[in-house]
Amino acid sequence: MEDSAENMQRDFGLQPLDGLLDELGLSNRDLVEAIDEQLTHKQVQRARKGRRLTRKMKEKVGRALLAAIAKQGIKREVETNALFNYRS
């Protein structure tokens, strides 16, 4: 029972980030390659699937998304808070 309760606190299901990436045709790889900061495919996947991330990691994913959007030449503004449906 405790294991189930812990998972409920860490897993939030698909995030708005996932839908936005699909809509824009961007992959996890696009985000990883878009910034010079340390960001792995696994971290992006965790962000998309709703695994709880720290505030700093959510901000890093947000920066990577903005950089990937800019590299694609897409004009779109995105706030980091809009990418996730939970608060860290």
Structural features, described:
With 88 residues, the chain is mostly helical. It has one domain. 59% of the residues lie in helices and 0% in strands. The protein contains five helices and no strands. The longest helix has 18 residues. It is globular, with a radius of gyration of 13 Å. 23% of the residues are buried.
Give the tags.
globular, mainly alpha, 88 residues
Number of β-strand runs: 0
Radius of gyration: 13 Å
Uncertain spans, ≥5 residues at pLDDT below 50?
none
Q: What class, by secondary structure content?
A: mainly alpha
N→C terminal distance = 24 Å
Put simply, the count of helices is: 5
What is the count of structural domains?
1
What is the string of SSEs from the N terminus onward? HHHHH
- What is the general shape? globular
Main beta sheet strand tally, sense and closure? none
How would you state the average pLDDT, rounded? 90
Strand coverage percent: under 5%
Could you estimate the helical fraction of the residues in percent? Answer: 55-70%
